[in-house]
Amino acid sequence: MTTKEIAARFNELAQQEKWFEIQTELFSDDVISIDPENSPYFGYAEGKEAVRKKGMDWVSRVEQAHHRYTTAPIVAENHFVVGRKVDITVKGFGRIVIDELMMYEVRDGQIISEQFYY
What range does the domain containing 34 cover? Predict the structure, then answer.
């Protein structure tokens, strides 16, 4: 799959909030996941299983989702970026709003990295 095709499939699943399906279907086995330095939420994970665990840990802490939105992707060469805004209640943080950019790198038809800017 091309970067454009992966971004389109990503968008299709993201609009349905199917984040674990995105990981299963589109991520490489050696994918990396990077949050901002000093993030109060998460840091770095390497490998499909570790990235999935990072996501599952986050989801397990979400008590309520008030609003979630993901923009359509913007594609450039082997990268694409989406905007994401969530208004959620999280154990240990209370109600928070995260407005972020999520950048993905594609190689050999799979996502090899995700990086979050918030």
Answer: 3-117
Domain count, the chain: 1
| Interval 35-58 mean pLDDT | 93
DSSP 31-70: EEEEPPTT-SS--EEESHHHHHHHHHHHHHHEEEEEEEEE
pLDDT band at 12 (very low <50, low <70, confident <90, very high): very high
What is the band of 103 on the pLDDT scale with cuts at 50, 70, 90?
very high
φ and ψ at 96, to 5 degrees?
-135, 155
Report the candidate in 81, 79, 85, 115 with the shortest Cα–Cα distance to residue 100: 85
CATH of the domain at 107: 3.10.450.50
Residue 31, φ and ψ in degrees, nearest 5: -60, 150
